[in-house]
Amino acid sequence: MSGNNLTPKERMQIQRQHMPEQDPLARNKNFEQVNLGLAEEIAIMEAKRCLQCKNPLCVTGCPVGVNIPEFIKLIAEGRLLEAAQKLKEKNSLPAVCGRVCPQEEQCEKPCILGKKGKPVGIGNLERFAADFEIAMGVAKIPPLPKSTGKRVAIVGSGPSGLTAAGELAKLGHSVTIFEALHKSGGVLIYGIPEFRLPKKILNVEVDYVRKLGVEIVNNYVVGKTETLDGLLSSGYHAAFIGTGAGLPYFMNIPGENLNGVYSANEYLTRVNLMKAYLFPEYDTPIFKGRNVAVVGGGNTAMDAVRTSKRLGAAHSYIIYRRSQAEMPARIEEVKHAEEEGIEFRLLTNPIRVVGDEKGWVNGIECLKMELGEPDASGRRKPVPVKGSEFIIDVDIVIIAIGNGANPLIPMTTKGIDTNRYGNITADPKSQATSKPGVFAGGDIVRGGATVILAMGDGKVAAQSINEYLK
Q1: So what CATH class is 151-242+407-469?
Q2: pLDDT score of 12
Q3: Are residues 132 and 81 in contact, defined by beta-carbon separation less than 8 angstroms?
Q4: Is 212 in contact with 173 (CB distance < 8 Å)?
Q5: Alpha helices of 137-263 — where are they, by DSSP H?
Q6: What pLDDT, on the 0 to 100 scale, is given for residue 1?
Q7: Would you call 377 exposed, middle or buried from its count of C-beta atoms within 10 A (0-12, 13-18, 19+)?
Q8: Residues 361, 260: contact at Cβ < 8 Å?
Q9: Which of 397, 466, 429 is nearest to 169 (CA)?
Q10: Rounded to an integer, what distance in angstroms lies between the CA atom of residue 402 and that of residue 405?
Q11: DSSP state of 150
Q12: Does 8-136 match 250-401 in CATH topology?
């Protein structure tokens, strides 16, 4: 029975198809993917659940405007390569987004099926179509227009920079990405662990952007190797800044300077970019630890704590000052962490890192908390419980309470306005900064946000840059 001959009632009777996963007690010892992907017949069955709404609300929930019903319809009809190509009309990184986007908060949230049951597994289907194209090895490059003769410099090869670059290349402009690190991908390569986003998948998607005609120059620190003003005076007609939020926040509590205290940023960079996860093949210096405390409740905290377990920790703790209901991490990431044996110390706030006489961490002193009235974030404010101090024995502490804006570009560029947090200020409708011809997006503008929101900014900026260059 074709996916298009089903009545809405028949579609609604199909149950949401489950994404198979690695067994928790096996996967918490390896860095292979947790979610194993959908088999073809399962993906087609899931695609048949889509009601093909006349007014598809799912599209309004997608920051890059993917034609969701159309790519799902193609899967339901078994036209799998066409489904991947349909995705790529709007999204240059579908295999990445299918793995790391919070679809449950974006495209799947407004899905009509979700009103009475479970929404269509849009993210799982996106990953399936993108992975199918990668497995076939037949990524189709769209016809590119004649060169406009205009050159654009992109600073940073994270999700916003890659998206802006791909969109500008498709409009006929000559694009160069300048990346500070020796590998391309930004937060996608240094921040997200292998078990959530394999490097080989990311590399295929970065290569696709290259095939669109984008040049990527690595080991090039704009602000040090050359300033942004220097690039603009050397023949670039416009620039996009997508340098991310790479400046880790700390708690400013006693003992944070002890050996064995990491920022989540440094810890994950050592494991992901410097390949500590491939020990002993790569002997990256990282102290693995038997008892590891990760402070925070977001996706980065989950990535760090689940990584510590895979590196051999006997006890990996999440220390979070609110309850689980207030955690900003994706529900799936919290569920996976619990299944893997991560120990959650909720309503708990660190007040001191404890060290031995040699300057190494040997504990973390905490206070019990209770929830009071909601604060500015809308979440209930944690209030200390007097006299409830206690110590957890740990030998590594990882701070994952967020990151600030990378200050290098604003410090070395004339005429770029920033807000009080150091983020570059950009018009949300155009991503234009206060400096003519310079646009910005992603975490350098938003602070820590999601991959897909950064990509949305890159897309808006590309259209604005195109208008500016005209």
Answers
A1: alpha beta
A2: 86
A3: yes
A4: no
A5: 159-170, 187-190, 199-211, 228-233
A6: 45
A7: exposed
A8: yes
A9: 466
A10: 10
A11: -
A12: no
- 8-136 CATH: 1.10.1060.10
Question: Can you give the length of the chain in residues?
Answer: 470
Token pair, residue 342, equals 């991560």
DSSP character string of 234-277: TT-SEEEE-----EE-----TTTTSBTEEEHHHHHHHHHTS-GG
Give pLDDT tens digits for 202-255. 999 999 999 999 999 999 999 999 999 999 999 999 999 999 998 899 999 999
Residue 17: CA count within 13 A, CB half-sphere:
23
Collapsing DSSP to helix, strand or coil, 465 comes out as helix
- At 237, the amino acid letter reads H
Among 28, 67, 108, 25, smallest CA distance to 331 is for: 108
pLDDT of residue 31: 93
User: Is residue 401 within 8 Å of residue 293, measured between CB atoms?
Assistant: no
Closest Cα to residue 106, out of 95, 115, 119? 119
Give the rounded percent of residues in the chain with a pLDDT score beyond 90. 85
Report pLDDT digits (tens) over 41-92: 999 999 999 999 999 999 999 999 999 999 999 999 999 999 999 999 999 9
Give the domain ranges of the chain. Answer: 8-136, 151-242+407-469, 250-401
The string of DSSP letters for 335-357 reads HHHHHTTPEEE-SEEEEEEEE-T
Which pLDDT tens digit goes with each residue over 181-206? 999 999 999 999 999 999 999 999 99
Cβ-Cβ contacts under 8 Å for 460 (sequence gap 6 or more):
429, 430, 431, 441
Percent of the chain with pLDDT over 70: 99
Cα(321)–Cα(296) distance, integer angstroms: 8
Exposed e or buried b per residue across 299-329, where buried means at least 16 C-beta atoms within 10 angstroms of its C-beta: bbbbbbbbbbbbbebebbbbbbbbbeebbbb
Half-sphere exposure for 128 (CA within 13 Å, toward CB):
29
Taking only the tens place, the pLDDT of each residue in 268-292 is 998 988 777 777 777 777 778 999 9
**Mean pLDDT, range 389-404, rounded to an integer:** 96
467 has a pLDDT exceeding 80: yes
Instruction: Check if CATH label 3.40.50.2300 holds for domain 250-401.
Output: no
Cβ within 8 Å of residue 390, ≥6 positions away: 365, 366, 368
Position of tokens 């095939």? 211
pTM recorded for the entire structure: 0.93
